Amino acid sequence: MLTLTSPIETYAHRIPASLKLAAFVALTIALFATDRPWLLAPPVAALILSCGPAFALQTLKSLRPLVPLIVILALWHLWLRDPAGITVITRMIIGVAAANFVTMTSKLTELTRCIQSLARPLSPIIAPKTLALAIGLTIRFIPTMLLRAGQIAESWRARSAKRAGWRIFLPSTLAALDDATHTAEALRARGGLG
């Protein structure tokens, strides 16, 4: 499996994940507390650009999967003639860019440890270790699933002149379920969560 951590080393990699997560939570609260979320775009963009042009380009590429959702939201709000769509889309882009910044500049083990310590108050409901593992696996599987969907789309293009579009949804879903099954079997073989 791949990880979302950026191979481009920046100063932000040395900042503890707990501080970055706290800043992300504060940003998310601010995004929904204001009716002008675009005012938060310049500081987030400046933060990303402060890590260098290569890192900024990598961050921009990581936002590419949002494009279809942005188009759907924009068309929906245009059809409704609802100007609030701009606010929704702006919040989504800023929030995802900030979340990507946190995951790209933090090691997965550090994020998992941080989530585990934050989840301690939930221990009567769910084991913090289980929750941290679930979130960690979800983060690790995102790039793997994107890579697998890309491979399936390439296979489609090699066999057909038509665009793949929705046709790769089922094979991608089955591949994700297959990966999840193999991961569950591997965890079970190693004694679960220990």
UniProtKB/TrEMBL annotation:
Where are the bilayer-spanning segments? 12-32, 38-56, 63-79, 85-103
Q: Which UniProt keywords apply?
A: Membrane, Transmembrane, Transmembrane helix
- Location in the cell: Membrane
Membrane-topology descriptor: Multi-pass membrane protein
InterPro entries in alphabetical order: ABC/ECF_trnsptr_transmembrane
Hey, which family's this protein in? Belongs to the CbiQ family.
What is the name of the protein in this document? Answer: Energy-coupling factor transporter transmembrane component T family protein
Q: Which organism is it from?
A: Cypionkella sinensis
